[in-house]
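Quick question about two entries, pasted in order.
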Amino acid sequence: MITCYLRYVIDPHKLAEFEDYARLWIPIVNRMGGTHHGYFLPSEGANNIALALFSFPSLAAYEDYRQRMAVDPECVAAYELDKRNRSIISFERSFMRPLLPTA
């Protein structure tokens, strides 16, 4: 399993717009074979940092998702929404291997 960690720098005056964008991606990732673990939005502390975590069975499965999302109408619409809203200033993407409790 591979988990994608996204760290966003967002416009704090456009938090509602970012939330609209984020809500679109949770079902998209799940529909396309991943497991979305949610978005984590500013509360206390920095008001311009948001995080997202989602997992795929393998890096190959994630790469397949990336290829399919480029032409998926819902994905394209989500990207277009943020192009209009401009709530995301920048983002970083990292991949991690989770260590989960054993049975």
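Here is the second entry:
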Amino acid sequence: MTANTVTEQLTAAGRAIEHDSFSIIDAEVGPHAYSSNQWPVVRRMIHANADFDFNGLTDFHPQATDAALAAILGGASRIVADVEMICVGLSASRLAHFGLATHQFISDDDVIAQARAEDTTRAVQAMRKAHRLGLLDGAIVGIGNAPTALIEVVRLIRDEGARPALVVGMPVGFVSAAESKNLMAELTEVPWIVIRGRKGGSTLVVAAIHALLGLAEARQREAA
């Protein structure tokens, strides 16, 4: 069976360490109810934080992985993030292979000015800017830092007809983090992946997207 090449570590030593880590996780994780497409996402998240709690805390819309693969392989998608850390953390070569660009607006002058004028957060205004620019529709939206960004994405979906291909909603924190993810998981209009509760973070969004890119490369090879 041919292995992935684009979405793997670049050296044999790096690949061996990563594969050994995955084998340890598989051996120690215990039972889980994730599908064959969902488990690689959860496993990579566990790998990113050495935290087995993500077995159980991670929740998937039924169409989440299929929607992600369609978006990645369709050639017309993009990644919109709440913070720069996600964009920096994603592998440039893996994104380039699929023609994916990243976008984030958290530090734009107009976003900061509008947040001050409306007494909202920069994260809210950044999501609104992405929507105004037409970037949310068909995008993979990654939220790892700001619960207010995820709450705004939910509002944009419900009230303004935004239609991301997938929302990876994993903001971390103590104020509205769990609640924002519960709101996202109530939606049926758009597929989502969320972490229930307070845990999350940009690292986990990056891990989840990298796992989805790996699944996409495997699907590419099957179709070749």
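Reply: The chain has one domain: 12-223. Residues 12-223 form a domain with the Rossmann fold fold (CATH 3.40.50.10230). Hope that helps.
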